[in-house]
Specification:
Blueprint: H1 2-20, E1 25-31, E2 39-46, E3 51-60, E4 67-69, E5 75-80, E6 86-92, E7 99-106, E8 112-117, E9 123-128, E10 133-138, E11 150-153, E12 173-174, E13 180-185, E14 190-197, E15 202-210, E16 217-222, E17 228-233, E18 238-245, E19 248-256, E20 268-273, E21 279-284, E22 290-296, E23 303-310, E24 316-321, E25 327-332, E26 337-343, E27 350-358, E28 362-369
Antiparallel strand pairs: 1-2, 1-28, 2-3, 4-5, 5-6, 6-7, 8-9, 9-10, 10-11, 12-13, 13-14, 14-15, 16-17, 17-18, 18-19, 20-21, 21-22, 22-23, 24-25, 25-26, 26-27
């Protein structure tokens, strides 16, 4: 019965995708290198059929644990999560999907773990986890990164003496209108909010969004309507919903991302809102190894738990919904696999497609349109 239901869902999705003319995508997978992988790998994904084809190593680079693509799909940027701290800019060959290095710059701190490009493609924001700082880089016309035009060193701590004795910037986001930049600091239980000056390339701190002490905010995702933002906290595996307006985060409610009967270690990781704005997904590591599903009230931003699905491996550090909104790719770091799930358009539920990738230490997934 379950297989018949999945087949009907897949056929319905294929019919919708075919009618909409869904293109193929390049799926880039970033890894932790040194344990059998060499950098960023690329796959061709056909959403109509669910076919996933390996195209090989796109580029060799150190620990590309987080990636971002500019809005035109011409450049890909990756952190180099190493002690010295690096950020690499790559040109995308649209014909082959391969990447070529443009330049690499110092990230401004140690162990950078997140980055993002604004919608105009003019600025790149980087979070340095090890040193607890944020850097802003102007992007040149050829996609290369100029010297940092803004830098903010966080100062402070929180109540977890092991994980929060120093600041740890763990996310980098621009607001939907590009007027503000945000960074969740795991070590301080704060989301830093900066006003972006696009003329001078400067950041000015204008406020903070807070979570409960000891939560350890990790990543942030905006709702497509621009009215709400959601933060997953690593240390408590909770999701906090905020109202977002004119550079201010107002808390709505915090909900657990783990099943009620779970008693193991907590380690929340990734968060993403579905392109329709109807669902939110969050990943849990520890012993849970699952994806939490929430329904979103688009009028209030409130979350309603809608179940959990096993990630298909161990340590789902990251995941990403494909641009068609039909599939979710989960990167399971410690089981060395990326598992593809189909998304039910009515319920947001996840069903394994049977498609997966075997790859050493996969930790990030990004998509662009392929010819």
């Amino acid at each position: 019965m379950r297989s018949l239901r999945f087949l009907s869902l897949l056929l319905a999705a294929a019919a919708f995708a075919g009618a909409a003319g869904n293109p193929a995508y390049y799926a880039y997978i970033g890894t932790y290198t040194g344990h059998g992988s060499q950098g960023i790998y690329v796959y061709r994904f056909e959403p109509v059929t669910g076919t996933l084809t390996s195209l090989g190593l796109a580029v060799s680079t150190d620990n590309p644990s987080f990636m971002a693509v500019n809005s035109t799909g011409t450049y890909l940027y990756a952190v180099n999560e190493v002690e010295g701290g690096g950020v690499s800019a790559f040109r995308i060959d649209r014909g082959s999907g391969m990447l070529s290095l443009i330049n690499r710059v110092f990230s401004g701190g140690s162990s950078p773990c997140a980055l993002t490009v604004d919608r105009t493609g003019r600025f790149l924001l980087v979070a340095n986890y090890g040193s607890g700082s944020v850097s802003l880089f102007p992007v040149k016309r050829d996609g290369s990164l100029a010297k940092a035009s803004a830098f903010d060193q966080h100062h402070g701590s929180s109540i977890d003496l092991q994980r929060q004795h120093t600041p740890h910037a763990h996310s980098a986001s621009f607001s939907p209108d590009d007027r503000f930049a945000l960074s969740a600091d795991l070590g301080m239980d704060r989301v830093f909010i900066y006003r972006l000056d696009p003329l001078r390339g400067k950041l000015t701190t204008v406020g903070y969004g807070g979570v409960a002490a000891g939560s350890g905010p990790r990543h942030l995702a905006f709702h497509p309507n621009g009215k709400f933002a959601y933060v997953i906290s690593e240390l408590t595996s909770t999701v906090t919903a905020f109202q977002w307006a004119d550079g201010a985060l107002k808390p709505i409610a915090t909900v657990p991302a783990l099943p009620p009967d779970y008693r193991g270690p907590k380690s929340g990781a990734e968060i993403q809102v579905h392109p329709t704005g109807k669902f939110l997904y969050a990943s849990n590591r520890g012993e849970a190894n699952d994806i939490a599903i929430f329904k979103i009230d688009v009028a209030t931003g409130k979350l309603t738990p809608a179940g959990h699905v096993a990630s298909g491996g161990r340590t789902p550090r990251s995941f990403s919904v494909d641009p068609s909104g039909q599939y979710l790719f989960v990167a399971n770091q410690d089981s060395n696999n990326v598992v593809v799930f189909h998304i039910d358009p009515e319920t947001g539920g996840l069903t394994p497609t049977g498609k997966s990738v075997s790859l050493s230490s996969p930790v990030a997934v990004q998509f662009i349109n392929a010819p």
